[in-house]
Known about the structure:
heterodimer, A: alpha/beta, GMP Synthetase, Chain A, domain 3, 4-stranded mixed beta sheet, 3-stranded mixed beta sheet, 4 helices, 7 strands, B: mainly alpha, Ferritin, 0% strand, binds zinc ion
Amino acid sequence: MTAVAALPGDAALFRARAAISAVADPEIPVLTLGDLGVIRGVAVAGDGVVEVTITPTYSGCPAMKVMELDLQLALAKAGFADARIKTVLAPAWTTDWLSAEGREKLRAYGIAPPVGKAAQGSSSRRALFGEEQAPACPLCGSGQTTKISEFGSTACKAQWRCKTCLEPFDAFKCI
Amino acid sequence: MSADAPLFTYCLRLADSALVLGHRLSEWTAYAPTLEEDIAIANLALDLIGQARLFYDYAGKIEGQGRDEDALAYLRDDRDYMNLLLVEQPNGDFAVTMMRQFLYAAFAVPYLAALTRSKDETLAAIAAKAEKEMAYHLRHAGEWVIRLGDGTEESHARAQAALDDLAIYIDEFFEVDAVEQSLIDAGIAPDPASVRSAFEATLAHVLGEATLARPAVRTGQSGGRKGLHTEHLGHLLAEMQVLHRAHPGANW
Ligand SMILES: [Zn+2]
């Protein structure tokens, strides 16, 4: 393996980006962390160390620690044993950060992607006790779906059921 | 008192309320009335404990004495805890738990929304995350309050009893002492009075649909911010802290 310290900055950066590009969300493995939108930056810091900046999804998301470890491991394998993972809170992650590709992967995996925009002040942010936009069934595409529970198998999902094909499914919460 | 002392105290207050309520909710795990609700309550607990960690972490950095989130959560006694009295109240029946959650969230949502405009960037960032989560809590608990209040005779009676029991803790949300006033003046903490109308509107809407009557409260209970708690907090902390105190610095 090439001694990474010897690589010029751009090459190191390219290699670090490539190394983490395949790191998957530990709870929804069809998504990469990039698809999920939690990677905010990859840079070579002043001291020459690669620094990856991430942001948490939910405050109490238990997967954050695993994400950090997985990133660290992928970077170590690519020769960046001393890479740092930095966490930033602002701007807060919302489902608006999910990539278009990520949304398509979710649907193909059987999870309905979030409906509408989540950002504060966004016109489609759901009113507190207002009607919720129903997600389309990821299995048959029907719009006739009904909510079973606001909370699902992980912090980021709710449980829904399709009235057409009768299958239950997970839907990504719009938050 | 150093210049940062009020900010440290304020962060601890926010953290303590979130942690104590999160711990209370975690007591429902594996006992909730349905599987969906079990999962829901565990998720609510996780959100709150996550928010508490962010506030503790920041408090530890402000203090600068090397205390981390664990030291602040596990190695302080009840007199040092500054949570709101509401959140330490026992779970009671399901109606009590949902009413407690509803009242807290009805305050937390507008309060945290105001905190996102804090001049302190870290507090604003934590609030931006927490506010979105608490909006979910408010919707979930609010829907339950309506379902229980406007449900059977039995569920209505229990929901009304829960509200009657917990209403005395509402006024404490809006109390401001010298510590908080200095932060309000500095544009760091929101004035809770500024969110009272939003809180009242939420209560009027939900309690109205739930056909529940707001009891008249002559003197609200308070003291949590000064470390004066109901007997329940000591028991909660004993259970929450025992492992860490028996095995200091344990890691796994
Ligand atoms: Zn279907």
